[in-house]
Protein 1
Amino acid sequence: MRLWRLTRAPYVALDGQGAALHGSRYAPPGSRVVSLASEAGLAVLVALRYQPDDLARAAPDHVLGWTEVDAAPLRVPDPDEDAVRAFVGEWLKTRRSLLCAVRSRVLPEADVVLLNPAHPAAAAVPPLNCRPFDFAQCLHRPPMLDAFKEAR
């Protein structure tokens, strides 16, 4: 399974330290967990929500990366946010699978895939294959926009 992550270059390690230090949407405070996405576009959309309004002010060291994981994620039931957090907390503690999938609230057709770095299989997960990513360049004003407006 190919999994995607958009992050800043210093934080590409799949060790969960960022979540342990700064928190995570679905994991209890202080928990090590790595948030990945089932689709590259979802990784971009999720990261975009945390960028400044003026994308030219976004940090210049973002990278879009992917890794291949030979594991099927455990599906997280998602009746509400509190139930998801409780499930993920128990999942992290018991280490019952390497991955779990939460239906994305940003793009419900895709999944946020959580990786438990404390699971024994985590050591075999390859590091991210990364390329530079620039929000301003990616989301620039398309040249054809004016042509489409004139055609109306």
Protein 2
Amino acid sequence: MLKSYFNKKLIEAGCDEAGRGCLAGPVYASAVILPINYKNKWLNDSKKLSDKDRYELRPEIEQNAISWAIGVVDHKEIDKINILNASFLAMHRAIDQLMSVPESLLIDGNRFKTYKNIPHNCIIKGDGKYLSIAAASILAKTYRDDFMKKMAIKHPEYNWDNNMGYPTKKHREAIKTHGVTPIHRLTFQLLPKQLELSL
């Protein structure tokens, strides 16, 4: 069972992102404030759950959370500010939208850019340790997947409904054959060096 809180005396928001390592599409982040006594034995790091489980848990999280929100940074912004800063910005945008102001932020990972004056704790593999971060990882992942599935209808040759924009063999073969789409991240290495495109 994951932990319910880091500091019981504070209103905590768990934060996580999805899509950082993708070659196409935006990076999504979520911030989630759960009740202090919330328990859910199924809630875990989104990467350890099946697609079906993630989508079943999403309404459960949304209905039980005190507040939750999604932040998005698109591929153009990613190319301008780099993926690390884009991940921080997506989390900031999610926190901006919370209906309750958190007193502490639990961040999945080892780095974060301070948000306003709210103290934060970076927790490596936090999505497998704290319920609020796990909840944020599930929301960020499923909302991003929804976006990539819509984009897959426009660009079926890239297999985005299966790879979600990550650098799979099929995705890279499609880039080599068809070139880039309007949502590819042009500052990323889209192909191995020996197959690089002339953009």
Protein 3
Amino acid sequence: MRLAGVMSVLVALGCRREATAPVSSRADGALPTVTAPRVTGAMRWDGRLDEPAWATARRIGGFVHPTTGQPELGSKVNGDARVAWSDAGLMVAFEVRDREAVSSLPPSGRDVHVWEGASGVEVMLQPGDFGDNQEYFEVQVGVNGARWTTRFDDYNRPVVRDESGAMHFGHEDWEPALECGTAKTSDGYVVEMLVPWATVMTSRVTAAPRAGEAWRMNLYTFRDGQRDSLAWSPLLGQGNFHRATRFGRVVFGG
């Protein structure tokens, strides 16, 4: 009984260390890389992350300040993300330690400005290993499931104002068949998603990736109109969240 009690304490401490493991600085300018394993099996997109695929997915190692690349312990949107891939698409799961996450947007909202009205997460994806801002995609998902999806031809382009005065960023008619689920947790919230390959084909990348290939990707967490935000790959003063030269690399493992 005593041994069992000691083991229980050690397990609990181990879990706590994993949950609060310090994030390493990424201020040296090197682009972070994550090797995503190829996974199989049925998935339920409910924010629970209890499928075997997520147990084998690779963690990115946490988030840092978008400008400095340093850990930001005072941020409310610290956390981690897991990445994997399947025949169907790219899989990303965010675990955000934001206990105060809120949203003023309806859960069924589509093409609503998530960054303005909700705590949420963001995926920037450029198919291929170009890093030149040509043909890239953006997906934002709020804590309650509201979404904003768009694609861009070039760095922050196009951006237009319609006759009513509303701003439109990129081609907002891009509506991927996104599989997505969110859930509140004791530490904050989870967003899991699958971005289908067929929805992110471009003039230069016309097929799903093969094992060993790399695409450009960046991941962000945010709240309060992005006044509090963190990045996987920091920008280091080289532009805004769209700067593809600062996107990290996701390598598709076997």
Protein 4
Amino acid sequence: MQIIPAPRPRAWLSGLGLVALALSLVACGPRPVKLGFPVVLTGLSSRIGVAGRDGALLALEEINAAGGIKGRPLELLVRDDRDDPDAALAVDKALAAEGAVALVGHMSSRAAAKAIAFATDRQLPLLSPTISSTDYSGQDDYLFRIIGSNDLMGRTIAAWARGKGYMRAASAYEITNSSYTVPFFAGFKDEFEKLGGKVLPPRTFATSATYDYRGLVADLLKDGPDVVLAVASPYDTATICQALSLASSPLPVLACMWAMTDDLFRFGGRSVDRLTGVMYMDTEGQTPTFLDFRKRYTARYGEEPSFASVYGYDALMVMAEALRASKSLKGPSIKASILGIGTFQGLQEEIRLDRFGDCDKKPMVFAARGGSFHRQP
């Protein structure tokens, strides 16, 4: 009887075997803890979301290098909320269906308008790096924030402006993100007028690449102001500065934190050198943790970190600490863990949350000069 040797396995079959072995080994490892990260990644406001994501990714590396969450790796599910309430709600529902135990994200008050109610109904903790609207303050819900309120920022820049002698402020604010812009404007107006100044009737507009910003500026100048307040996105604010330059107006511009990203310089060039704004982050901070983060961030991404980068990093670190301390990965337990810890260490300062998950911080004033922000006394 002739013995026929068995055929040798083909190389591609051996390769499949190796892949199957690798997958089986991964399957044997601890399941990751899934965390949703819904932020704006497209459109005119995308710079804030991209910077927040990039900061969070550096935090994710540190968290997993240190053992993850109770020995399980943390997995970040990054999704684009398009800075739109309906899109943000759809994204959050999808993340919950994918098994996210909590959410870190939504960079604007506009995007979170419907997401907060969903998160509360679903008992899904939502920790935002940058939502600052007073619309959500003092509520026993599932929203937590590591940034201070927007009305306080408005009051801070108003007091600075009056200290510089400005008396008549023309003003304009963006209306599609009204839960952010209206409280900021109201805080500014109240403080500016309490200190003896006059805020002229505001103009409102919606962000658009086709909006007539030159016409808006012409209206603002009719009232004879000595300073202009713009409560709007980096694109809007930069375009208003350009329109002032085209009108040969030397008027200074006051801005909100929303505008204070490198997109301001990208869209406005030297025209934004007239601008002074307010932030909670110190771009010139010297804490060792911030300096180390700044070094790693610039090495990784080739640019300076913005406030969104810092708060994206801090927010993920806060959530990781809460997840480690939580008795379970259920929403109510995570919420209790966040509130129970209360005080967390950020890159630049302590992050203190009250019983409603709101954060108290002191804003700082910065001038936009030569492509960067500089702290003002």
